[in-house]
Amino acid sequence: MRTRLAAVSVDLDEIDNYVAIHGLGALDVPRTAIYDKALPRLAALFDELGIKATFFAIGADLARPENARALAALAADGHEIANHSLSHYYDLTRRDIATQRREVKGGADAIEAAVGVRPVGFRAPGYTITDQLFDVLLEAGVTYDSSVFPCPPYYLAKTAAIGLYRLRGRASRSVVDDPRVLGAPADPYRIGRPYQRRGQGMLELPIGVTGDLTGRLPYIGTNVVLAGEYGARALTRLATARRFVNLELHGIDLADAREDGLEALAPHQPDLRRTAAFKRASLEAALRSLARQGHRFVTLGEAAQHYAASAA
Ligand SMILES: [Zn+2]
Predict the structure, then answer these.
(1) Whole-structure pTM value
(2) Which of 29, 57, 113, 241 has its CA 20 to 30 A from that of 291?
(3) How far, in Å, from the CA of 250 to the mean position of ligand 1?
(4) Dist. CA 291 → ligand 1 center (Å)
(5) Which DSSP letter does residue 186 get?
(6) For residue 64, how far is its CA from the centre of ligand 1 (angstroms)?
(7) 244-250/5-11 β-pairing
(8) Which pLDDT band, with edges at 50, 70 and 90, does 2 fall under?
């Protein structure tokens, strides 16, 4: 029987990133709620289910000793820590190549200093990547990337949201992606040129979407945690149409507006309107359903090793 793998990854975007993406400037909310509150909830759930996950860290956040210690503990526990750039510029793909190099290397340096192991995987801020950024990753010795999100519903929603913010006179820090990403493979592949085509380049582990027959709906944290237990199981069944399930979460998926003092952000961030307990139950239902359907949980680094030979 073919091995069916599933990987769970968590982007550790801190609260400042959400303030920036909604163009909110100075909002009075605790800026360390992701590392202090949400991360322990995620780690406890993974522990309970015996899942080793991949955590994508923003290098600059590791200047805070508590954050660096938390990641070192996760790494010691067998989780993978991967690179989510140094500063999480949403427009990283539009910056000059020197900045891109600094962001990739700086993120890896900060993680290596914090956990003692140099990361092998990369995820670009905002799921936006380009051929030039792939070149920078290759130069930096990155083994795999997991940024491509070939998801039509997500693309349309993001493009519409950025336009809406402009109409309201608020500047979102998000940038619109190249629409060719919608034609990219949704299963592990080696990138060609342009990267949306298959080739001989770096291994890409695209972010989870459901099967082509169900319109490549996003199989990511926001959708899963808000779906409720029944909905989360239904989405999971659609996602397992793919041979590899790459479930991407964000720390905020298990944040709680009231317990974590994030009420002021809740009007802008729909997932904060549900409690952490509700979202945890949905996520747990999805993860248990993946296990029941015979998927073996691996880190993205392990998945990369598995597909390195077969993905073309
Ligand atoms: Zn991010």
Answers:
(1) 0.94
(2) 57
(3) 8
(4) 27
(5) S
(6) 18
(7) parallel
(8) low
